[in-house]
Amino acid sequence: MTALTGAAARPAHRSPQVLRWLGAYTASTLGDSVYYLALSWAAVSSGSPAQAGLVMTVSAVPRALLMLVGGVVADRLGPRRVVIASDAVRCVVTLGLAAVLFLASPGLWVLAAVALVFGTVDALFLPAVGALPPRIADRDQLARVQGMRGLAHRMGAVLGSPLGGLAVALGGSATAFTVAGVLFALSLPLLCALKLRPLPADERTDGTALRDLADGLRYLRRHRVLGPLMIVVLLADLGFVGPLNVGLALLAQQRGWGASGIGWILFGFGAGAGAASLLLTVRGRVPRAGAVMGWSMALGALSIGALAFVPQLPAAVLVAVLVGLLAGLNGVLCGALVQTETDPAYLGRVSAVSSLGSLGLAPLSFPLTGAAIGLWGPGPVFAVSAAVCALSGVFALAVPALRRAELPR
């Protein structure tokens, strides 16, 4: 792999290329947060809670079904082109929905249609945005770029919801959708200004889409680090995502912590995860990355299990900080290893597989998680979640190639 020259060879936090990509990603992440809050508010205002939940679930189906196809598209067409098209579509759709809401009160079917479009676009956007860093930064800077991406993601989650809530308070869902559309629009000129390193001719895809998909899966299966890493990521996501998103709300309700309690716990989790991203941003690498990832998963599993048995809110917030720190650390390390171990020609497809668990399959488990907590309470469900996460950590430590994986200096 040839080294970048000129401005792109600078440290990641000083590279104009990386900063443009980071600014676009931050704007898009903020837009996502505002959009989902506006969609949930519009759905609740227009129908029953069950109908609103159905609207919010619609996005997960095409995202799960089409994620691998999105990885093929990113590798065939180029990640920059796919990301620009995805944000352009989201901009047009959200601003169009805002205009409709300003003029009329459409039924839930309109919101469901928009959610369906967003889920489809996400299946293209997510693999493509993960494939961009190696085309704009040197390999020894990719871990730092992943840390910067983690910080941007946390910023979007922390600031996006209050911004969306303020927009809803000032002008309703229509205003919030307008804000989301403007944020998506802000990402476009930054993305258009990116200049990507071209792939060598022998690394470009030239077969059919189905053949490219099969080739990408074979590449993963044969890779000594990436193959086991995908199993680790899938297990961790299936064990972690459901209890955090669904179980936490039900746990807070049973404990009498209320909505503010959920907010404090999520704040603790976000603070811990943000600290982990900041660590990788500053250091650029972590020695014995594979082993650290495995141990952080195993210890994080114990913290997840402990969260269900802490009766007082302040103690639960402290546990949430620990969960966020450990989960955030193994998350950024997994992402950094994906970036540094994958041939750039396959990165769209590999990113699609690594995102499939948390953003495609895990959301489909939300109703099952809620039903299980309703039947048996939060303790057993969080214990099962912890066991699955612990299994992912043990597996990572048991595979020699993954345990010894290092980030480049």
How would you summarize this macromolecular structure in one to three sentences?
The chain is mostly helical and 409 residues long.
3D architecture notes:
The two termini are 15 Å apart. This protein is mostly helical and 409 residues long. The N terminus is likely disordered. It has 15 helices and no strands. It is globular, with a radius of gyration of 21 Å.
Largest sheet: none
Which outline best applies? globular
**How many DSSP-defined strands?**
0
- The topology string of helices and strands comes to HHHHHHHHHHHHHHH
Q: How is the topology of this model organized?
A:
Layout: H1 16-46, H2 49-58, H3 60-77, H4 79-103, H5 108-131, H6 142-192, H7 209-222, H8 226-255, H9 258-283, H10 289-307, H11 313-341, H12 347-361, H13 366-376, H14 378-398, H15 400-403
Helix pairs in contact: 1-2, 1-5, 1-6, 2-5, 3-4, 3-5, 3-7, 3-12, 4-5, 4-6, 5-12, 6-9, 6-11, 7-8, 8-9, 8-12, 8-13, 8-14, 9-11, 10-11, 10-14, 13-14
